[in-house]
């Protein structure tokens, strides 16, 4: 099992763009622009990760300034967690969470946030529900935080 940081291994940029954009209903150009610029920015954000098992990409996640949510006073955000269905139930998502937490802490942040409709999953890993936020596409999501 290997976590690939696209910033640290930019040769995975195109793979990350294709994989991540195929998993989320956000226009490809958004991921292309964000992932491309994460490689050269001196800022600690954004970061994008791929999870590789053998030679197969089986998951992804990101660490960003805002996850398309109204609470722009909160950052950074853990976003886009996805693990292929055949590989779920093995705590692989937690590997991506831990990598993002380490990078957020190295970047000087004291908390990490996420927005989700899932109830019960992130709490297992220490995230605490703090309220709701609103997306531009007229949906509401639960907001969680964790101390780093």
From TrEMBL:
* Superkingdom to which the source organism belongs: Bacteria
Q: Which Pfam families match?
A: Acetyltransf_1 (PF00583)
InterPro entries the record matches = Acyl_CoA_acyltransferase, GNAT_dom
Q: Name one GO molecular function term.
A: acyltransferase activity, transferring groups other than amino-acyl groups
The cross-references to SUPFAM superfamilies, in alphabetical order and at most eight, read:
Acyl-CoA N-acyltransferases (Nat)
The chain positions of domain N-acetyltransferase read 4-148
Protein name from the UniProt record: GNAT superfamily N-acetyltransferase
